[in-house]
Amino acid sequence: MLHQSVKKMSYHVVLQRLPSLLADAGFRGDIANDAALLAAMSTDNSIYTVTPDIVVAPRDAEDVRRLMRVLEAEDLRGVPVTARGGGTGTNGQSLNAGIIVDFQKYMNRLLQVNVKEQWAEVEPGIVLDELNAQLAATGLFFAPTTSTASRCTIGGMVSTDASGKGSRRYGKTSDNVLGMEIVVDGGRTLDSDPPTPDWANAMLLEIEAACASGRDALLGQVPALSRRFTGYDLERARPPGGDLEWWRLPIGAEGTLGLVTRIRLHLMRKPKFKRLVVIGFETFAAALDAGSALLAHDPLAIEVMDEWVQGLAERAGILHALPVGLRARDGQPIAYNFVEFVGDDEADLARHVEALRESALRLAGAIASHVAVDDIEMAALWQVRAASVGLLGKVSGTRRPIAFVEDCVVPVENLAAFVKEFTGLLSSNGLSYGMYGHVDVGCLHIRPALDIDSDEDRTIMKAISDRVFDLTRRHGGIFWGEHGKGVRGAYLAEFVGETAYDAFRRVKRAFDPAHRFNPGKLVGDPRSLMGVATTPFRSVNTDENDPLGLAFRCNGNAQCLSYQRSNVMCPSFKATRDLRHSPKGRADALRHWHQAKHRGDATEELESDVLAALDGCLGCKACATSCPVQVDIPEMKSHFLDQLHRTRRRSLADKAALLLEEYSPFLIRYRKLMAVFARVFNPLMEKASGLHDLPFIAFHDVGKGGYKTFSVEVIAQRQWHEATVFVWRDPFTALFDTQAALALADGLRGFGYRPVFVAMRPGGKAAHVLGDRPRFIRQARKLRSAIDKVAASGRPMVGVDPAFVMMIRQDYVNAGLAGQNILLVQEFLSEEIACGRGLPRLNRERLPRKLFLHCSESAGAGATAWKKVFAALGASVEIAATGCCGMAGLFGHQQRHQDLSKHIFDLSWTGQLRGEKQAMVSGFSCRCQTKRFSSIRGEHPMRWVADAIDAG
Predict the structure, then answer these.
(1) pLDDT per position as a tens digit, 891-942
(2) What SS3 class is residue 609?
(3) Phi and psi dihedrals of 503, rounded to 5?
(4) Calpha distance 537→771 (Å, rounded)
(5) What is the pLDDT of residue 5?
(6) What is the radius of gyration, based on Cα positions, of the chain?
(7) How far apart are CA 261 and CA 122, in angstroms?
(8) Which DSSP string do the residues of 753-819 spell out, in sequence order?
(9) Does residue 436 sit in helix, strand or coil?
(10) What per-residue confidence (pLDDT) applies to 317?
(11) In degrees to the nearest 10, what's the CA dihedral of 801, 807, 813, 819?
């Protein structure tokens, strides 16, 4: 089944006047209902999809109050209102019809910090890692640590009462919240700080009575575990003999009680020292059985990974961070326990670690262990474990591991028996699965592989869900121990019993008498609740060779929404915090358009909305390598534009770029004449086409440096000296950046090589970016043939510009044009060093302090290769922690992108360049951008290397 229509009530008609009403009320945030944004907001990290009618992004708490006051209008009172943070929920928590309130876009501020009393107040849209980065200088941190810490918001953590690594010691989110402000109907605001407003007195009396009526029944029904019941927490909201703490009720209530606008958090002091022990086991069963013995050493956390996930990680190439002794050999699978210790006494910590290590190796099935001390190594090893969920999404075939029974918690002593029954259930249904999780608290993430597009597998899913719910209760556990309930809330009444559930209903009515906040979740009439099999499913499969197939593979894990500015994925989202302008959002939009096209109802308006979302994509390709599922948005954008421009005319700027690439050999042949002509033509072209800061054609070619250029045919006919290195250029480097080509050649010559340039041929870069697929394929085939002919000479080949080299590796392969690769210059030198070649020592004083990489390099192996090269040269160079520079070929030259381009540059480049006078900058686009927005002299790294050799 390719598509399932979303069956929901539409509020589109009554909401048509909402934008004007909000504007009249002074609302300062964003209001949008374009198809791309609605598609992006219709999914999360679950298997479900519910399309909202409109999305609002408030600027502050007053905007939230304005929204709720406007919604008091008679015809708007029934419209659902649902809060959304990072959208990382695995059970549809933030999916609903009506209005989605996007908190992460603007309401992401750290409002106040009290270091002495160890608390902070934040807005709900701030990301966990973002918060802790801002707190770093204080020595404090917010302790709950989720695997999605780079993109989950504090509001979302409060909504689901998130926990994660270290929760046995640090507790869950609810254990670290001190108070909040919440907005309910009519824009009324309730603050945990006194005084209580008069209007709330009757409401709070009813809530207090509800808590009293259901507290004992709830405690008698729910197991007393550390990952115990959350949301509508009657126990802690009204303890015996204590005052009502109403603000504990919304924690874990998944936005069903109102809109939280401010949260006070308890902070902890960061431990001074950390150690991570990784222990390998022959089987997952052995790793599980070791849990109690390891727990006796009182570590901060114990995380486990099964053999299947380990195999996926091995094939994905991310296990290089593990020592050789802990890697699988001869195809033998291996399971891991990751055990972390923290403390302020280094000697005492070392004793604990050594004691655990000695005892661990005596455990049944233990293979080897390793202790990581360095922060960088520990982060790399934890990333192996954190990548588990993303790796499971990469499984090939129509059946893929999905989240629906993924966070059950049972007492640690019951864990092995529970897992045995659980896996037996899956095996009896013929299902494979991946498993990882938190052994120390008895919480495992088990994801069975199902084809959610199949009616048969959906039936299996519902049956397994029911059986696991019963199995968890039989083993004294909880069905939803970490990731919230979402649509699994349909089991809630049975889980807590009739008396406690009636108390929940009273709490819900008191906070939300109109039943408008995230309706269909957790509490309500059973017929109105969303369920695991009744909520519309997101399509996950399409034809095997469908060029937009990866849009269906996107599982919403949302690593692309990482807030970290130095993370190359995704620059447009980092600059806008607009979900449309992320790989996830664009994949959702493309999937929506694809489905509409197959149904025959893809409108021009829909195409324009999808085009607008794709227009902000810089084409940096970070998503093609950094995304666990490798959702390659630039590749899909190319195919979308190809189809779009079969009926739509191309812009003048697009036509000019395509013609420039096509006729670049002619322009190079008459370079000096064209260079003079460009001085007159460029300003006219900028005015006519909406382009900006166009580069000028260089007057001289590489012959100025004494280098020869030969055609492919001549190269194929001759014998070449063993020191020959063939240098390839793309049209844009050849036309505009002779200096970079000379820099690379001079550096190679300084190392004793004989660089020879290959006559430039168009490779289809512009055609690929602009979606002219026939032109791209034609040019790519010719260049592919040329590369293979030169490769037959047996001499190495390097490319001047990283973007050109990566195009051949990625886009050519996607087009079925695999063949000999051209190397980045640092890769070539790194390989030569590995083969024993010695390089001369440099005059270090001639080298800049920092190296700035093109984003295509930093997303791949280029950074590691540069480190090896400079180490061999005896030079210490810092690789600047930057993301994309904001230029990305034609993108930064388009007038409509100027503000965004500059903003992206400022995110990570401006700060890294501050205080520098000169820098090594590897990419042509990056050097252009550095020249535009700074006074720094940025040159190709090989220019500096060549000069330092000469001066050495």
Answers:
(1) 999 999 999 999 999 999 999 999 999 999 999 999 999 999 999 999 999 9
(2) helix
(3) -65, -40
(4) 31
(5) 35
(6) 29
(7) 9
(8) -EEEEEPP---SHHHHHTT-HHHHHHHHHHHHHHHHHHHTT---EEESSHHHHHHHHHHHHHTT---
(9) strand
(10) 66
(11) -20
Whether a cis peptide bond, with omega within 30° of 0, leads into 855 is: no
Alpha-carbon torsion (346, 348, 353, 357), positive or negative:
positive
Q: Which amino acid is at 142?
A: F
Helix, strand or coil, per DSSP, at residue 892: helix
- Measured CA to CA in angstroms, residue 811 lies from 591, 634, 639, 759 at distances of 21, 9, 12, 22
Helix (H, G, I), strand (E, B) or coil at 297: coil
Residue 224 CA: distances (Å) to CA of 228, 470, 486, 565: 6, 17, 22, 41
Paired tokens of 641: 């534009």
The predicted structure's pLDDT at residue 375: 82
The per-residue pLDDT for range 311-331, each reduced to its tens digit, is: 777 776 667 667 777 877 776
DSSP-assigned states of every residue in 260-294: EEEEEEE-EEPPSEEEEEEEEESSHHHHHHTHHHH
Residue the block writes with tokens 């060549």: 946
d(CA 446, CA 443): 10
Residue 634's nearest CA partner among 623, 648, 650 is 623
Map residue 48 onto helix, strand or coil: strand
- Angle at which helices 773-791 and 652-662 cross, to 10°: 20
Inter-helix orientation angle 633-644/583-599, to 10°: 40
Q: What pLDDT does 6 receive?
A: 37
Task: Confirm if 86 and 152 have CB atoms less than 8 A apart.
Answer: yes
Tokens of 19: 């934008």
Which residues, listed in sequence order, are joined to residue 797 by a DSSP beta bridge? Answer: 726
Could you tell me the sign of the dihedral formed by the alpha carbons of 356, 358, 359, 361, in that order? positive
Place of tokens 């039943």: 515
The DSSP bridge pattern shows strands 754-758 and 724-728 to be parallel
Cα–Cα separations (whole angstroms), residue 8 to 12, 50, 95:
11, 8, 12
DSSP-derived letter for residue 676 is H
What pairs with residue 276 in β-bridges?
A: 340, 372
Q: Which residues of the chain have pLDDT under 50?
A: 1-7
Q: Say which residues have a Cβ less than 8 Å from residue 365's Cβ, sequence separation at least 6.
A: 281, 282, 283, 285, 286, 287, 289, 290
Residues in Cβ contact with 62 at an 8 Å cutoff, skipping those fewer than 6 apart: none
For residues 87 and 45, what is the distance between their CA atoms, to the nearest angstrom?
Answer: 7
The residue with tokens 């009530």 is 9
The rounded distance, in Å, linking the Cα atoms of 451 and 105 is: 33
Distance CA 571, CA 72 (A): 39
- The two tokens of residue 321 are 């961070």
Closest CA to 485 of 406, 388, 540: 406
Query: For residue 12, how many other CB atoms are within 10 A of its CB?
Result: 13
Buried b / exposed e along 276-303 (16+ C-beta atoms within 10 A): bbbbbbbebbbbbbbbeebbebebbbbb
Q: Which residues pair with 852 in a beta bridge?
A: 921
Q: What is the pTM of this model?
A: 0.93
**Sheet of strand 823-824, all strands in order from the earlier edge strand to the far edge:** 709-710, 754-758, 724-728, 797-799, 823-824
Cβ atoms within 10 Å, residue 574: 25
